[in-house]
Every structure is written in C-alpha cells, then in structure tokens.
Amino acid sequence: MPSQIDLHLHSNASDGTDSPEEILEKVKALGLKVFALTDHDTITGALKLKDLVKKNSDLKFIPGIEFSCRTEKNKCHILGLNYNHEHPAFKEILAAGNNLRHEKFFKRIDFLRDRFNITFTAQEIEDLLKIPSTGKPHLANLLISKGLAKTRPEAIENFIDKAKTGNDKVNAADAIKAVKNSGGISVWAHPLGGERESELSEKDFYFLLDELISYGLQGLECYYSKYDFQKCQWLEQIAKQKNLFISGGSDSHGANKNIPIGKLNAENIFVESNLLTVLENF
To answer: In the chain, which residue ranges form alpha helices assigned H by DSSP?
Structure first.
C-alpha cells in the first residue's frame, strides 16, 4: 500500500521519465498528501511543480533537490528540502553542480569518441543539453538508438562507466551548508546505498554519518524503497540517537527504475506520516 508521503521523486528534468505534470497526476491518483521533487542538481522541475500545485490546495508540495556529493574519501547524495532557491549560497552550490555535470558530459562524449570511435551529431548533443540535468541514462538511450547496446545498464557498463571523469561532484560540506543557510533541510539520501548500488557496510555507514553530521547534516532518509522495514526502523533509531530528522522517499524515476511512487520500504508497508519527523519543518 503506498504511503501518503514521498519526499524523494525524480522527473524528466533529470533522469526520470515522467514530466512534472505526469508526476502531479500520479500523486493525486495515489492519494498522497505530501510530496517533494528532488531532481539531480537541478530545480527546473521543482519550480514548475510548485506552480502547478498552487491549483491543488489539498496537496502539500516541498521543493527539493538531490546533490551528487563527495567527501574526502566517499561519495554520497544529499537531499535539500524546502530551500530558498533565491538565496546566494544555494544559487552558488546549484551553479557549481551544474558546471561539474556539464564538464562530465563532455568528458564522456570525448571518451566515447577517442576510445570507441562513437560520434554524435551537433543536433544530438544539442538535444541532450536541453535536458536540465543530463546524465548517464540519457546518453545510454542515445547509444541504444544507434544499436550499440540493447539496454541502459548494458550501455552504461560497456561504454559510459569506462570513462574517468575525475572530480565531478560538489563538496558535501558545501552542499549541506548551502541548504541550511537557505532555510532548507539537508538529508542524507539512501544512506546504506541506493538502487543498483552495493550496500554500505555498517562501519563505513557510521564513519560517513559522523562526518556528514560534523558538516551540519540535519536529516536521514530512513524509509526507502530498497530497504526492508526492519532496516528502515534500524535507521530510524540511529536518527533519533543522533538527533536527526527522519525522512523517507521512494526514489521513483518513472520507467527508468520501476519504483512506484509512495513505496517507502521494500515490503511496501504503509508508513504513518508522524514517523517522518522532517515534516515538522514544513
């Protein structure tokens, strides 16, 4: 049964397949009460949804974003919820993320040309750059259209992931600080590992958690579609011990990951809204 809250969704402004309009219709059909759009390194879809939801007074929409981040030894994803997108600190980190993503895109294009002799037309590149947050799935779809792979995972594994793009993520400390300074709440997304990622060991999890807390992290995504309910509850207890807000989301990407909106644990057990203490801020 889908929960009535989902604070981790993606649209076609990044690597999802649904438009903001389509997400809104799905959210309404499922009976959700509160939701957030957290596209990768872009707020284009969130701003559009914010305007759309104004006409639906029974819905609570929270503008969000998912920053691809790095620390000295690790990588992680930080959600920013309910930020002020006009705040200078937020605008600065958003621009930094966009610049790094842009550089990464062209490094991959150059790599595919130099390593595999795969070239793209100016129109193909222009079309990809029209997407606010171009990523691996979009490039993979283009490789599939050229007959170079049958599936996105195959295209990513055999071609795209072989490119070394270097420092392509913003600093986690900077992202957390910018979200907080702009009036938002920073949340560590899928802290044990996201969809199609290997699970973080307990030791590495605690090490990274303490590091992120030292930067000012405010919340933990305890309820997540990949984690069984027992694991979600374990994360909830840790959040309480560390005085962190409890958040939850499906990480739905439409057809790209086949995760239903409102699925906040692997068993799809209904999660009561009062469990997600991050909602106290909205």
So the answer is: 20-30, 44-53, 88-116, 122-129, 136-145, 152-158, 172-181, 202-214, 229-241
CA-CA distance, 211 to 219, in Å (whole number)?
Answer: 13
Please say whether the beta carbons of 181 and 175 come within 8 A: no
**Whole-angstrom distance, CA of residue 186 vs CA of residue 181:** 10
Domain range 5-93+172-281, its CATH number among 3.40.50.300, 3.30.420.340, 3.10.25.10, 3.20.20.140:
3.20.20.140
Q: In whole angstroms, what is the distance from residue 131 CA to residue 15 CA?
A: 9
Query: pLDDT tens digits for 10-52?
Result: 999 988 999 999 999 999 999 999 999 999 999 999 999 999 9
CA gap 42, 70 in Å, rounded: 17
Confidence band of 166 (pLDDT split at 50, 70, 90): confident
User: Maximum distance among all alpha carbons in the chain?
Assistant: 54
Please compute Rg for the chain using Cα positions. Answer: 18
Residues β-bridged to residue 248: 223
Single out the residue of 45, 67, 166, 53 nearest to residue 110, CA to CA: 166
Give 138's Cβ-side CA count (13 Å radius).
Answer: 23
What is the model's pTM?
A: 0.91
Enumerate the domain spans of the chain: 5-93+172-281, 95-162
Cα dihedral 99, 208, 239, 23 in deg (nearest 10): 30
